[in-house]
Amino acid sequence: MPKKKPKPVTAERTVDSSKVEARQSGIHATGCFAACDIRKGEKVIEYVGPLITKAESERECENENVYIFTLNDQYDINGNVPWNPARFINHSCDPNCESENDDEHIWILATRDIKAGEELAYNYGFDLGEYQDYPCNCGSPKCVGYMVAAEFFDHARKYRESQKKEAVVV
After folding, report:
1. Which domains does the chain have, with CATH numbers?
2. Model-level pTM?
């Protein structure tokens, strides 16, 4: 039985963004920063936007500046709207946040205590399909060089090392 379509998140819906502020990032372009101290386990912000079908998502992914978040088997959230500051949270290989998806909402949660002014980041969890097209610039000592899910870190490290060796040989 198909899942019931979740209630769409629209501009009329108020999103509590009091814990975050968007500004220039050292990781990439605009980032999202803690506007106050945030405790481990605390909900930081909801990732919101219009619901789109998987087919619409595929078409949207052909564009640049895509902010698509998988919601469930049928729908994704197109977060590329001005009332979604969570779209500015950058990827990190050593994140201080994670996403929690309950098939109706996507929440960004703190995985450790975060100080006011600290940049928020979570692992985007990309798989290995075309991962070389998504280099990571998180700057963490734990950075694997690509925006991949933690389960693929070893693979990404090996690929990165092989690329360094090839560059030295040339």
Report:
1. 20-124 (2.170.270.10)
2. 0.88
